[in-house]
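question for whoever is on the cluster today: can someone run the full assembly for these? three chains, 888 residues total. i dont have access anymore since they changed the login thing
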Amino acid sequence: MKPLIKARDLRAYYYITVRGRERSIRAVDGVSIDIYEDEVLGVIGESGSGKSTLADVIMMNIRPPLRLISGKILFYDEKGELELSAMTYKYLRDNIFGKKISMAPQYAMSALPPAHKVWKIAEDIFTSHGVQLPKEEIIKILQEKFESLGLPPAITDRYPFELSGGMRQRVVLAMSTLLKPKLLIADEIIAALDVATAKQVIETMKLLKKQKHVTSIMMISHDVPAVVEIADRIAIMYAGKIIEVSSAKEIVEDAKHPYSKMLLESIVTIESKRKQLRWVPGDMPDLSNPPPGCRFHPRCPFAMDICKKEEPPSMETREGHYVSCWLYVKR
Amino acid sequence: MFRGVRLEEYREMLLYLFRENKRFLLAFIVFASILLLGLFGPIFYTRDPFAMAYKEQLPPSLEYPLGTDRFGRDILAQLLYGIKTSLYIGFIVAVISITIGTILGAIAGFFGGFVDTIIDNLTNMMLTIPSGLILIIITSYIPNRTVELLAVVMSIFLWPGYARGVRGMVSSIAQSEYVMLARASGQRSISILIRDVLPNMAPFIIVNFASFIGSGIWMETGLSFLGLGALRSISLGSLLYWAGTLDAIRRGLYWMFIPPGVIITATISSIQVIAVSLESVFNPRLREVGVAEV
Amino acid sequence: MSTILEALNISKVYESGFIVVKETRALDNVSVKINNEEIVGLVGESGSGKSTLAKILARLVKPTEGKIVFMGRDIWRDLRTHGDMKWFYKNLNIVFQDPYAIFNPYHRVDRVLHLALKLAGIEPDSEEGEKEILNAVRSVGLNPGEVLGRYPHQLSGGQKQRLIIARLYIIKPKLIIADEPVSMIDPSLRAYVLKLLLDLVRSERASMLFITHDIGLAYASTDRILVMYRGKIVEDGTPDEVVGNPKHPYTKRLIESAPRLRG
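^ ran it for u. tokens below:
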């Protein structure tokens, strides 16, 4: 599998002032992850795990109060290797954002300018990336794309507010991939949608990838079943760290990390056993003051002495399956 | 609702305002200065503003720092006295308008139905009346125009528009879930109105209150300038009136219209800025504003 | 088994427009029966009318047609005085979906608990009142020191929703109408918060109407499921019946598109 993105040891903190004192929130605290070509990587975790921050960091969309403290992000395409983390904001804005890496945010309404018709929004996207096309051409491209995604071509002439929530979200997906980026980052895009609409959006994403509008997708969500539906690999984040990564199938059937197991067991579907509700006890740690050692140890039923003192390294338990847990470190 | 503990927090918040919000500080200083001038000025500058003398239309001098008007009355003395009068009028106008408007608007918005229809029709009726015109006509028919009477008449035209706004806000607040929760806790409607609805309206009420003080001052000035004010008393508007009768602008008798004009403008604008800044005190959510600094 | 709440032929029609009046039927001839010690699930998507039904059953919105009998009393005809209202809400109470909207931003969160005490007939400033509050807050897994005395904006959604449930721990109603109580809570906390509600219902031998769009949650926690579609009830059965053998086409679609982990 060819790598598209290699992120090494990323640390990105928010610096805020509360009542006169500066605090750092360590949202991404030592994350290394690869994203391969032609795959969908799902990133799941609770609120406060840092997954949305990771999405911003991978895209190098790092603005105050967020700061990239250390770490490297390498991007690979036909031209070779590019160290994204060393580029200036101007370079990123002119060459990467929207072109090579694109992000589809959660709230479609705020992503689409309300006063423009859909085709005009597309035109703006093209122009801001230096692509000049006549209106008829844009409309043709858009309509073809919409049709291939199962959207009615007529919506090119509509305003965003005229579309339903689900359609808007799918339009956002189409817009984010107009320039055929290598990587699309979808950050909680189905969170505000009901089940049926969310399904449509997931199907649209599958189509985007199948029809090569985009090479790879990084999907951030707390909705595990939806991620399992589309992802090839899944990474689980906890308190600023990735604690387990493997193929979607393995995560669902054979997760290793205690947190992963408890998280998956807490998901209730119509396949769950009735009258048996499970959850992860305790609270997410305060990211401005995380516990020493393994961050999960205060809530972990298997916590050992070493868990309280040292952070576990990442071990490859099976091919492609990585866990950060002292239970799996051979001594 | 406004128990002891919260008062302390208001104090803390006010201090924050004074420290951080430069605009508020400036407006506060301006308004406080004007207020102090009005309250304490006459103690130090003791000349009687009503006293007429044969020293008419004198430009500023050592004896008369702001000169005299057409009756030989000391302009500075009138200014100091007029501040009190104008603020008094503005205050009464605000109190009356806000009280009527809040009560009627809240009842209409909260209870809806028949009561709402009645109040709504009343409000609409009043809004269609050309207020400026009728105000002029009414006041010209009052033989004995006192300051208080004028304030009452001016209030009649201010409350309907405000009541509309209150009705709208109350109506939407009444649909909110915390009002439903209050109902589901067995609270009486009046209790809900006072404890749940009103606090959420406080900024709206306060801002309008301040605005009405300004409106009252402004309307009084206008009426006085037309000769329809309470001309037997002295206000900032009456100064302008008498200046107008002398065609002061064209004749360059600047000391007669510039000082009152400046004070009027300063008073009204500083009140508005204060009101808007105070809004942040009443909204707990705006308190931790200083958090996301970089 | 006796019935605690019976809603008969409930319809709610909204009208809009002046000259051309448009009618929206939020609820169309809906009848619901809830028995003692029963947990009933009402499953429907947004726009199905389920929230409207919740508010109508909780006497917060008046139906255009229909009758609701709670513990033998017609809630619109037989309940008139303030005392009647207090009786009603002591025995029937609610949990709503949005923890961010349910607290008045101008008051501390304690007020919600104080009002609950008053409804339960306990003086908030008394020793007994304080004890009740501490117990209730701890029962929902919160640390009193961390949440009492705070303003709503200082607490997380999960904490706020748990406080709303703590309120019910004080009131101890015989019927809880829970309208999407966990939809706005982090998925990993949902089971926990739901369990808090279910524990209360079981220990007080009460009933609950659990309204949700998540058929999985309904399946796992209820004794009976009603499916709602466009203002009408289209299916009624035990969870296994509804999921295993759906009769109405909408229910079939719902089951088919329900999220699964291993399917």
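summary bc i know u wont read the tokens: The mean pLDDT of chain C is 91. The radius of gyration of chain C is 19 Å.
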